[in-house]
Specification:
Blueprint lengths: L9 E3 L1 H15 L3 H19 L5 E6 L2 H16 L3 E6 L7 H8 L3 E4 L2 H9 L11 E5 L11 H13 L3 E4 L28 E5 L2 E2 L5 H6 L2 E5 L6 H15 L8 E3 L2 H5 L16 E5 L7 H13 L3 E6 L4 H7 L4 E4 L3 H4 L8 E4 L7 H13 L5 E4 L2 H7 L17 E3 L3 H7 L4 H6 L1 H12 L2 E4 L5 E3 L5 E3 L12 H14 L4 H23 L9 H9 L6
Parallel strand pairs: 1-8, 2-3, 2-5, 3-4, 5-6, 6-7, 7-9, 10-19, 11-12, 11-14, 12-13, 14-15, 15-16, 16-17
Antiparallel strand pairs: 1-10, 17-18, 18-19
Helix pairs in contact: 2-3, 3-4, 5-6, 10-18, 10-20, 14-15, 18-19, 19-20
């Protein structure tokens, strides 16, 4: 995939970021101090562009390079005429950034909860556009362990201030590699700075895009500090990889570029017919759950599949046809009755509203037992729950030992059942979870949630940087499975269909919310926006 060579979409771990930073310093004959100046200038420019009325900043500084960036930013701000105050949590009097800030007239104070509270009480908050901005330069990407008590107090103080917060590289309290909370010395307690915006330097840190990091980082900005461009970056990456022979230098993941994956969509020839664009069969809808397969089928149709049919419980079929006459809905009373329907479709979706009854097990058994692993299939919802019971297993390719053409789409709860663990463990390290899922079940895996992940059958990891909290409603997974199936039917590979389906689904949610708001968003509301995006009818 050419997208993998695009610097703007690459996401890196803390270790890889440090290695690349060192390489860039050497390549450009830069000192750490010079790079710090560049980082501080980039951060200050972004801050003033995002909060143009701000005249006062409060910079919370720890030790190390992140704190150094903070002191340097404060010094540059003071030179620009801003009122700059540094709140230090560790002694840094001997460091050059500290001395630079002192030289430029920055007011440097030792942080205590009492002194900060006094500052808040004495601040003029009558003019909101001119509210001070807090800069989080406490820890950056280097921290792995629990936050010490002093840092916990600072985090709490910042969050309670109700002033805008700008984090450097990553919000304090968030793991730069997993996006999970770092934790604190008090067991079970979680805390992190809730930033309004975050700027990353040289590399985009993956922790800002996944897990809790996605919720705490706010609006994301990026600067390469003029030390890398796409070609140089790739060269540096390759050269360093040859020296170290370590995979950690490579990008961990890539943000899904919807334009790139849209380019994978085949053009429609003038002499096309319905058979040219595949046949999707949606299997599901036990008694009382007929809406789920209907939504999946509707989305598959609007995505562009040539034919869409539904195999469902007998009592659902007439209702589906009345609701969507373009669908071919067939009631099946047993697994045996499903067998003839499995022959013609090119893509299967199994799971929406399937339930976990004996009828459900029969249908899934025949889907898995009668269809070769070369038949493309999306496995979702209760089909995943049935797989988790270990009563049924995926067919595998006789050569690779994996079900390369299958796409699994679990949410965190389903992922926990598939891996026999807890939702908390899944969410604590979503990267580890999706890797474990693919190792166990093969195929392409979509781990849904804020910052949905896609791990392709060839081992490439992608992150969706779209979507919103309004999409936390029933049926969203059903329309996603139908969307992916519709793309598969039109000839996309499993990897491309999963990536494009996930990002279009999220973008459609964003468009719907932008027009009508988050509350009351329904899964089917996304369907017209997906169609618009596929036909390039919106400015995406």
């Amino acid at each position: 995939m050419d997208q993998l060579n695009t610097l703007s979409n690459a996401l890196y771990t803390a270790d890889a970021s440090r290695r690349l930073e060192h390489k860039c310093l050497a390549t450009h004959s830069l000192t750490s101090a010079q790079l710090m100046i560049r980082a501080a200038n980039a951060a200050l420019a972004t801050l003033l562009d995002y909060w143009p009325r701000t005249t006062t900043i409060h910079v919370f500084c720890g030790a190390g390079n992140n704190g150094g960036d903070g002191y340097t930013l404060a010094a540059l701000a003071a030179k620009r005429g801003l009122q700059a105050t540094v709140w230090q949590l560790t002694s840094s009097e001997t460091s050059k950034p500290y001395q630079y800030a002192l030289q430029e007239g920055v007011d440097i104070k030792q942080f205590t909860a009492a002194s900060w509270r006094s500052t808040l009480l004495n601040s003029d908050t009558s003019s909101p556009p001119k509210l001070p901005v807090i800069i989080d330069a406490l820890l950056g990407i280097g921290s792995r362990g629990a936050l010490r008590e002093s840092f916990c107090l600072a985090v709490a103080a910042i969050n309670q201030a109700q002033w805008p917060v700008f984090a450097l590289d990553i919000p304090t309290g968030i793991n730069a590699d997993t996006g999970a909370f770092l934790g604190v010395e008090e067991p079970g307690k979680k805390t992190a700075i809730k930033a309004d915006a975050t700027i990353s330097f040289i590399t985009r840190k993956i922790g800002n895009y996944i897990g809790e990091g996605r919720n705490y980082a706010g609006k994301l900005f990026f600067s390469d500090l003029d030390v890398v461009d796409a070609s140089h970056f790739s060269h540096a990456l390759d050269e360093l990889a040859e020296v170290t022979l370590e995979d950690s230098i490579k990008a961990t993941a890539h943000i899904i570029d919807h334009n790139f994956f849209l380019s994978m969509m085949p053009t429609r020839a003038p002499d096309s017919h319905k058979g040219s664009f595949g046949h999707v069969l949606v299997i599901g809808g036990d008694q009382g759950f007929g809406g789920a397969p209907l939504m999946a089928a509707q989305m598959a149709s609007r995505t562009g599949a040539g034919l869409v049919s539904v195999a469902t419980a007998v009592m659902n079929s007439s209702t589906m046809i009345a609701r969507q006459p373009e669908l071919m809905a067939v009631g099946v009373a047993s697994g045996q009755a499903l067998l003839p329907l499995l022959i013609k479709p090119t893509v299967l979706v199994v799971g929406p509203g399937l339930g976990q009854s004996s009828w459900s097990e029969q249908l899934l058994y025949h889907v898995l037992g009668e269809i070769s692993s070369q038949k493309k299939c999306v496995i979702d919802a209760d089909a995943l729950n049935l797989l988790a019971t270990a009563k049924l297993s995926l067919p595998v390719d006789s050569i690779t030992g994996k079900a390369a053409t299958w796409i699994l789409t679990p949410h965190p709860g389903e992922a926990a059942r598939l891996l026999d663990t807890s939702i908390e463990i899944i969410q604590a390290d979503r990267l580890a979870a999706i890797t474990a899922l693919q190792k166990k079940y093969g195929g392409t895996v979509v781990l849904k949630g804020a910052g949905s992940l896609v791990l392709t059958n060839d081992g490439q990891l992608f992150v969706c940087n779209a979507g919103n909290a309004g999409m936390a409603t029933g049926g969203m997974g059903d329309v996603l499975s139908g969307l992916i199936a519709g793309l598969l039917a039109q000839g996309l590979t499993s990897a491309d269909a999963a990536c494009l389906g996930v990002v279009l689904h999220a973008m459609a949610g964003d468009l719907a919310v932008a027009e009508s708001g988050m509350r009351g968003l329904l899964a089917t509301d996304l369907i017209p926006y997906v169609r618009q995006l596929l036909n390039d009818k919106v400015n995406a």
